[in-house]
């Protein structure tokens, strides 16, 4: 068996005897030519060593060796290079001439060269693969750095998609006196009305149980989706404003009424359109989808919000009020028919008064909402959460 | 009892292990796995262990909301928003848990015995696993930048580890590719 050097000459441990003289013990492949961890340049035979080479296990069965039984499996196998068929073609079994050995040597050289070339090529492909991924990540970062589009930025947009002004959306400025009455209602009245009641817990299987906690800006998020025409949305906005005012501050709230042609016509209410809400405990996101007469769109839920809405309520009911994916209100929570065609100030006067149907309904729902929000904020603020009771 | 005896009698005699020699596969005649360089295994194990640590931390935090991630909240950086977003789940499974599983499996695939293995399926599985990891990381980077609008430093460290693991695995696979026998 010969081991070619770079120059194509035979290496130090070479011997053709294994081929030409089968009975002669062939020295085991040793030294550099046997050192499998070859230099990258391919000059394997340039640094001979006396160590025994690692014998590839069961690489060459003794039967394949051409009469070199005395050398052991490795030596025999190596010696009988001809006994090891090259890939895809039969090997000469009884090559006993120098010319056939030379042919084998040439074949081996070619296979080694092909392997080296393939390895180099694969290294290049690997580099390209890694580079492609780095480039993709780099493009993401570059787009972001240059102010690329962000879908989530629309989540905090409070301006309408049609950019309607408040008056165009049938929304009037809020009377400060009415606003103060509602936001300043005594917690004791809410606690009395809501004793033993809570907002329905978001439970169930399927998509509902898979929803992660809804958060925004590092706080539990309360997502409201409603519409200007909707009478039940009109009813639910009252307790929402009452409850949320205990945890933060609304600015630019307006007043309006539900559709005069729908159920419970002209129910007076607030509008969250164009309003903002700030709180150190929670984030409130509102989506008012249409105007009072349903003729114009105001805001659209984001993709995420729409997906969540659909997941939690396949019929996409309004009002939809999601308390951080822990509690959920869909539809009306109290009877609001008595509020129909009343003035805004008249309903505002009833908040905190549990002796009227509307007043008790608003207080009860507001109290239940406060309890739910307290469970999201870790009972913060303590003054509110301890006063509301259970 | 009689039935059992019959059954035993019908059992073919065992072949003595010492006399059994498995036939050589064709590949074995033309290729050998030379002592592979050790750097893929060493690097892979180190990276997998680092990833395992971060993924464990994120997983614990996911299930124990009382633990606050040690992560600044400034500008684009907001770990909490990312880890509590709707993108923190894939097919209903928390991404943190998927990350943990990824690094556990990757750690096994990066062991020296796995790199020394001549089984092509293991080499392919390791490569495919690394591709899956870096692909998921790319998707999550996209989600953080363009959907959530925030990035999480802990998650980013996992993404970088996944990328380096991918590179190590790819280059390691080539570097340890079987060499034809002389």
What report would you give on this structure?
The complex is a heterodimer of chains A (390) and B (182). Chain A is α+β, with helices and mostly antiparallel strands and 390 residues long. Chain A has helices at residues 17-20, 72-79, 98-145, 176-183, 187-194, 206-209, 231-244, 303-312, 344-350, 357-377, 382-388; strands at 172-173, 215-216, 219-226, 249-251, 254-257, 268-271, 276-278, 283-288, 320-323, 327-330. Chain A folds into 2 domains: 17-112, no CATH class; 153-388, no CATH class. Chain A is built from 11 helices and 10 strands. In chain A, strands 2, 3, 8, 9 and 10 form a 5-stranded mixed beta sheet that branches. Chain A has a 3-stranded antiparallel beta sheet with strand order 1-5-6. In chain A, strands 4-7 form a two-stranded antiparallel sheet. The longest helix of chain A is centred in the N-terminal third of the chain and has 48 residues, at 98-145. Chain B is mainly alpha-helical. Chain B is built from 8 helices and 4 strands, in the order ααβααββααααβ. In chain B, strands 1-4 form a two-stranded antiparallel sheet. Chain B is elongated. The relative contact order of chain B is 0.18. Residues 1-9 and 12-30 of chain B have low confidence and may be disordered. At the A-B interface, helix 3, strand 2 and helix 8 of A face helix 2, helix 7, helix 8 and strand 4 of B.
């Amino acid at each position: 068996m010969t081991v070619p050097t770079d120059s194509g000459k035979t290496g130090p441990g070479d011997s053709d005897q294994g081929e030409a003289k089968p009975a002669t013990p062939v020295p085991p492949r040793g030294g550099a030519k046997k050192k499998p961890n070859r230099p990258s340049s391919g000059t394997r035979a340039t640094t001979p060593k006396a160590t025994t080479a690692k014998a590839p296990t069961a690489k060459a069965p003794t039967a394949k060796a051409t009469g070199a039984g005395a050398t052991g499996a490795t030596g025999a196998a190596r010696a009988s290079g001809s006994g090891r068929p090259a890939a895809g073609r039969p090997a000469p079994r009884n090559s006993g001439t120098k010319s056939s050995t030379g042919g084998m040597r040439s074949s081996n050289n070619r296979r080694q060269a092909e392997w080296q070339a393939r390895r180099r090529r694969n290294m290049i492909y690997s580099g390209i693969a890694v580079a492609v991924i780095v480039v993709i990540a780099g493009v993401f970062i570059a787009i972001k750095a240059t102010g690329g589009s962000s879908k989530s930025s629309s989540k905090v947009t409070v301006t309408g998609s049609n950019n309607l002004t408040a008056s165009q959306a049938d929304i009037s400025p809020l009377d400060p006196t009415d606003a103060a009455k509602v936001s300043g209602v005594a917690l004791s009245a809410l606690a009395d009305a809501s004793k033993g009641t809570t907002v329905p817990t978001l439970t169930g299987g399927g998509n509902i149980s898979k929803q992660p906690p809804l958060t925004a800006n590092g706080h539990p998020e309360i997502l409201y989706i409603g519409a200007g025409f909707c009478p039940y949305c009109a009813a639910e906005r009252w307790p929402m404003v009452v409850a949320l005012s205990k945890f933060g501050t609304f600015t630019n709230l307006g007043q309006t009424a539900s559709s005069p042609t729908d159920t419970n016509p002209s129910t007076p209410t607030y509008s969250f359109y164009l309003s903002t809400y700030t709180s150190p405990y929670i984030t409130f996101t509102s989506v008012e989808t249409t105007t009072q007469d349903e003729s114009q769109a105001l805001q659209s839920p984001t993709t995420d919000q729409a997906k969540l809405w659909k997941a939690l309520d396949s019929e996409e009911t309004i009002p939809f009020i999601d308390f951080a994916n822990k509690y959920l209100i869909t539809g009306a929570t109290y009877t609001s028919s008595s509020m129909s065609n009343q003035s805004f100030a008249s309903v505002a006067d009833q908040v905190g008064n549990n002796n009227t149907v509307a007043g008790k309904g608003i207080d009860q729902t507001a109290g239940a909402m406060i309890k739910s929000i307290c469970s999201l904020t870790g009972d913060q603020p303590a003054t509110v959460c301890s006063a509301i009771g259970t | 009892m009689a039935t059992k005896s019959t059954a035993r009698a019908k059992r073919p005699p065992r072949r003595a292990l010492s006399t059994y020699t498995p036939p050589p596969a064709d590949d074995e005649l033309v290729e050998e796995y030379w002592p592979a360089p050790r750097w893929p295994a060493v690097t892979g194990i180190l990276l997998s262990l680092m990833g395992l640590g971060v993924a464990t931390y994120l997983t614990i935090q996911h299930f124990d909301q009382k633990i606050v991630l040690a992560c600044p909240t400034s500008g684009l950086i907001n770990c909490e928003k990312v880890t509590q977003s709707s993108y923190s789940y894939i097919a209903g499974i928390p991404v943190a848990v998927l990350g943990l599983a990824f690094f556990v499996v990757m750690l096994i695939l990066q062991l020296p015995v796995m790199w020394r293995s001549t089984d092509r399926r293991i080499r392919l599985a390791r490569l495919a696993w690394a591709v899956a990891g870096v692909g998921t990381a790319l998707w999550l980077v996209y989600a953080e930048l363009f959907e959530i609008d925030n990035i999480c430093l802990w998650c980013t460290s996992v993404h970088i580890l996944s990328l380096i693991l991918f590179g190590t695995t790819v280059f390691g696979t080539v570097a340890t590719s079987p060499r034809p026998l002389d």
